[in-house]
Write a structure and sequence with these properties.
Amidase signature (AS) enzymes; 2 domains; alpha/beta; 14% strand; 386 residues; 12 helices; 40% helix
């Protein structure tokens, strides 16, 4: 199945010469390209919106750096998924592991890079939508510091967590794209110490103990010799806080359109949007206060040590996985991914693979504004996969 939205493949030439000369990139269909309707992975959204009047700043910056657009890519409907399935446009292929899902919601963007169709691609990441498909497809990926890359011209999902991220096949290109986006911004450094997230490794061990043991060895070889209980034994609280705030933001961004349009959603996506009706405003307000407390806790941790964790609780999700397996994955992945999301921190995903030819990925979470230093750290720790 193609990574790209139906119809002729979009081509936009570079607007200038620069550090990305000659490279081709794809754009997730949540991000505006001038003269094209941003479809959001849903035919009713496509039918009720106009062509973009201008490029999103993220797209414009890459065009000005010498790269050209080579396609808009399929996204899970309005970004509300981590699996990579779109009932309207199909499921983009996971190039290295075609029996498995590509991960979502930036599924098409990951697929396009993994298959070699483009050099790199833009995605968005709210609760893991770059991090998960990067891990599933064996790619480098980054969720940058919140608002480090302009969210203008991006279909708003949950703006309090939304970020524009990108996928590459090498750490070197991940860094080159970061230099374009983050040039002129104040850059933070990363601590010299690495600490494992105990709960994330435990979650992986519960489902895939062999993989967890190998990831533990890789983390130790990178210098993460100790671990911390990031969630302080209450993962459910972190997940609840994240989901309450995400759903409140989605209700604000998309609720009026959903009520007016009654759009056709796939069953799994429809049930997630239906949950918005049950939000309790007083509980949302409590979670806003809780988020500030949790963010301070995370900031204190990354002020002293880079957090290291498996990127995902499972190596892959098979195309024929049961609803129960997908549901458990979604819960555990959102929990692991809430660390960076709640504090607005950068997270870099590094692709590794073992002898059984299945993806293994480690992630590194650093202080706010340390995006380029975090990429450099990951590249230095794993030079063999550059």
């Amino acid at each position: 199945m193609s990574a790209f939205v139906p119809g002729p493949r979009l081509q936009v030439a570079a607007t200038s010469s620069g550090p990305l000369d000659g490279l081709r990139f794809a754009v997730k269909d949540l991000i505006d390209v001038e003269g094209v309707v941003t479809g959001g992975g849903n035919p009713d959204w496509l039918a009720t919106h106009e062509k973009a009047a201008r490029h999103a700043p993220s797209v414009a910056a890459l065009l000005a750096a010498g790269a050209s657009v080579d396609g808009k890519t399929i996204t899970d409907e309005l970004a509300y998924s981590l699996e990579g399935v779109n009932v309207h446009y199909g499921t983009p292929v996971n190039a290295r592991w075609p029996h498995a899902l590509p991960g979502g919601s930036s599924s098409g963007s990951a697929s396009a890079v993994a298959s070699g169709e483009v050099d790199f691609s833009l995605g968005t990441d709210t609760g893991g939508s770059v991090r998960v498909p990067a891990a599933f497809c064996g790619l480098w990926g980054i969720r940058p510091t919140h608002d480090a890359v302009s969210p203008e011209g991006v279909l708003p999902f949950a703006p309090c967590f939304d970020t524009v991220g990108w996928f590459t096949r090498t750490g070197e290109l991940l860094a080159r794209v970061a230099d374009v986006f983050l040039a002129g911004t104040e850059a933070a450094d990363v601590p010299g110490h690495l600490t494992r997230c105990a709960e994330a490794f435990a979650a992986r061990a519960a489902s895939e103990p062999d993989d967890a043991a190998q990831l533990l060895t890789l983390a130790a070889s990178a210098g993460a010799s100790d671990e911390a209980s990031v969630f302080a034994g209450d993962e459910a609280l972190w997940l609840h806080c994240y989901q309450q705030l995400q759903d409140d933001a989605i209700r604000t961004s998309l609720g009026a359109w959903i009520d007016a349009t009654s759009p056709r959603f796939g069953p799994a996506i429809a049930s997630r949007f239906a949950r918005l009706k049950g939000l309790d405003d007083s509980e949302v307000a409590r979670c806003r206060e809780l988020r500030a407390t949790l963010a301070r806790h995370i900031d204190a941790l990354v002020g002293n040590s880079v957090i290291v964790q498996p990127t995902t609780p499972l190596a892959l999700i098979e195309k024929d996985a049961s609803d129960a397996r997908i549901g458990a994955f979604y819960r555990d992945a959102l929990t692991m991914n809430s660390i960076a999301a709640l504090a607005g921190l950068p997270q870099v995903t590094v692709p590794l693979a073992d002898g059984r030819d299945r993806p293994l990925a480690l992630s590194f979470i650093g202080p706010r504004g340390s995006d380029r230093a975090l990429i450099a750290l990951a590249r230095n720790l794993f030079p063999s996969i550059e």
